[in-house]
Automatic annotation (TrEMBL):
It comes from Microbulbifer epialgicus. Keywords: Signal. Pfam families: OEP. Belongs to the outer membrane factor (OMF) (TC 1.B.17) family. It comes from the Bacteria. InterPro entries: MdtP/NodT-like, OMP_efflux. Coiled coil: none annotated. Residues 1-34 form the signal peptide. This is TolC family protein.
Amino acid sequence: MDFYRTLLTSVTCRRAAWLLTLTIFCSSAQTVFAQKGELLTLPDAIELTLARNPELAVFPLQRRGLDGIGQTAALRPVLNLGVETEYRRFGEGGSNIAPDPDDDADNEFELAVTLSSVIELGDKRRARVDVVNAQRDLLIANEQAKALDLLADVIRRYVQVLAAQELVVLAEEKVSLAKESLSAVSARVSAAASSESERLHAEAALATAILGEQTDKSMLIYYKHALSASWGQPGENYHLDSSELYRFEPSASFEELYARAQENPAIARFASEERLQSSQLRLTQTHSKPDVGWYAGFLKNRAVDENTVLAGFEVPLFTAKRNRGALTTAMAELDQVMLRREAALLHLYPQLFLAVTSREQALGTVSTLENSIIPKLRQVLKEVDRAYRSGRSSYVDLIVAREELLDAKRNRIEAARSVLLFGAEIEQLTARPLGPMGVDSSK
């Protein structure tokens, strides 16, 4: 089963193409699912989740927020308009007699108008814009990683529904076999060939099988609700193609898978984060260059009919020295990103290795059960049932043969589920199909 065939385009391209693909997927998924009614495929589940899951809806809002931050970052320094007035009155000898308002010798009025701003040195505006662009790239990487995590969860739930459907079928088979055993025991008891205790035992076994069937059906309902909750519509009015549980695609070598895993969005986001921290460092470095403040204007004195031109500038001192602490912090944060990436790769290696080896082991288990164990146990049950009906075998032998066959079939279902779950984990880690590059592994 090629889990990510429908996802690769949307998580590996830039956001604009991703949104276009997503829009197409959303409309087609809802239409296809409506047409099929009760049949749900994995592409349907993935596309419905992309269309409706609220965990992905927050990213467009964050992108709008970054657009606003980008507009602010691109602004040039503010231009300030200053107006200052001064009115002075003069009296003779400090008397309280009010001066003549028309006498300029006794009244003086000044008006000063200035414009002021700063000149940013070190290309600070470009550095701010670069930081916002790096934040956008990191947001895209986070969105892709979140989409992979979310869809991996959808795939796991899808596999659980597949396995639960098969377990219900197995439970129904167990009930059917218990009924056949009860019929055979009842016939022998009626013929006085077996004791009444065997019939009671068979009746208890049938009741136990019915309880197990009810439990498995309840679990199937739960897994269906959990799957459909991924796109916000919990329900159970659908079914899956159970044969998908046994469709396994060939896997690439571990070396090839590990090489892919190092480029998956969860690891690639560290590159985006590193670019962001580098931009933050460059912005911090620009703060070591002081901004030059300036002003210009004129001063008018009406009393003496005098106009004065004003101009000046100011430069903060010791800016580079005061910025050393911020530079140290920015460089430390950049180094931390690199170390976190190395730590993630160290954790990725054993995680991927365990998933690959466990999947191979589960594949071997499925193959052995299908080709060797189950056919033989099925034949054993036929022989023991025939022998029991003819009185050549005991009831205990019949029960043991039946349980061994049912256990083998259950183990096959569990092993097949493990194959798909480990495959989903591998594809989540690599963000690629399992098969070798250049090989079409679609089913």
